[in-house]
Amino acid sequence: MATRRPRRLDQDAERDRYKPPAIRSYDSALRLRILPELGHVRLGDITRRDVQAIADKMLASGCDASTIRNALMPLRVIYRRALEDGDVAISPCSNLRLPAVRGKRDRIASPAEAAEILAALPEQDRPLWATAFYAGLRRGELMALRWEDFDLVANVLRVERSWDERDGLIEPKSSAGRRTVPIPAVLREYLLAQKMRAGRPDTGLVFGATPERPFTPSAVWRRARDARKAANAKKELGEQKLDPIGLHDARHTYASLMIAAGVNAKALSTYMGHASVMITLDRYGHLMPGNEEEAASLLDAYLERRVTGGIF
């Protein structure tokens, strides 16, 4: 009976399709952390102790828990495939002693603060940040958003693609990333203003530097930083200052607003493009029932009470 030639770690390849950022991250981890230690060893000969030694070495050198876990992720992927193919009987990545990841607290703006941030921004940047605050899109999804993705009659936008700064247009983060998101009235006004400013286009990038070239995230961040500093400089002594915030923080804010507005967990999970409702529940808590039309109305009503009504 013919026997299969054992593979070495550096000969293995994961054939599932991964997004370019994940591929680059895995490639970097393999080249810098894994292959120098284990690249010459056959898959079946690597032991749990070998992998644990890499983790212990990284921890001793001062690497944080997330860095260690991310470095071992491609090795886990390789062994998951090797187990499926019958190349190994056990994975040396199981039952490792890894440091606990201490998650950072999400930066979430209150309804009134989100409105104040938008008012402080340069006019041309407000629709972009409003879409992050009130539709919860990821940065790459905002960069790739096109006018064709909007239905301002049905008040929904469709997330069809994302943008990678090295590879350009790519598929969304996961299959759940392709989704339909309701447009509340507070966001619709910003989008209509953006459409008028751009000359009522039917095609092209919504927030692009040009119809085909996306915005530069660093430039957007700098303008927001400068606007925040200018707004804070005008505040009286004792007034609450605006804290730094990024586009991903605005996405967290969207989740918080929807939860407070009463949108149910399954609906919010869909709108945010989470692969599982458990991700939404674990991160943002339990929500009450709703649908797209109700979600937009609930968010509008909640923001009206909190911002216009002056309830802080």
Description:
With 312 residues, the protein is mainly alpha-helical. The chain has two domains: 17-85, no CATH class; 111-308, hpI Integrase, Chain A, CATH 1.10.443. The chain contains twelve helices and five strands. It has helices at residues 20-38, 48-60, 65-85, 111-120, 126-135, 139-144, 185-197, 217-233, 247-261, 265-272, 277-284, 292-308; strands at 150-151, 156-159, 162-164, 168-170, 179-182. The strands form two sheets. Strands 1-2-5 form a three-stranded antiparallel beta sheet. Strands 3-4 form a two-stranded antiparallel ribbon. Helix 10 (265-272) packs across helix 11. Mean pLDDT is 85; it is low at 1-5, 11-16 and 286-290.
CATH topology of the largest domain: hpI Integrase, Chain A
Q: What would you give as the CATH superfamily of the largest domain?
A: Intergrase catalytic core
Shape: elongated
The CATH architecture of the largest domain can be named as Orthogonal Bundle
What is the number of helices? 12
Radius of gyration: 23 Å
* Strand residues, percent: 5-15%
Q: Helix/strand-derived class?
A: mainly alpha
The unreliable regions are 1-5, 11-16, 286-290
Mean pLDDT: 85
Compact summary:
The protein has 312 residues and is mainly alpha-helical.
Keywords for this structure?
disordered N terminus, hpI Integrase, Chain A, 12 helices, three-stranded antiparallel beta sheet, mainly alpha, two-stranded antiparallel ribbon, 312 residues, 2 domains
Q: What does the secondary structure layout of this molecule look like, with pairings?
A:
Layout: H1 20-38, H2 48-60, H3 65-85, H4 111-120, H5 126-135, H6 139-144, E1 150-151, E2 156-159, E3 162-164, E4 168-170, E5 179-182, H7 185-197, H8 217-233, H9 247-261, H10 265-272, H11 277-284, H12 292-308
Antiparallel strand pairs: 1-2, 2-5, 3-4
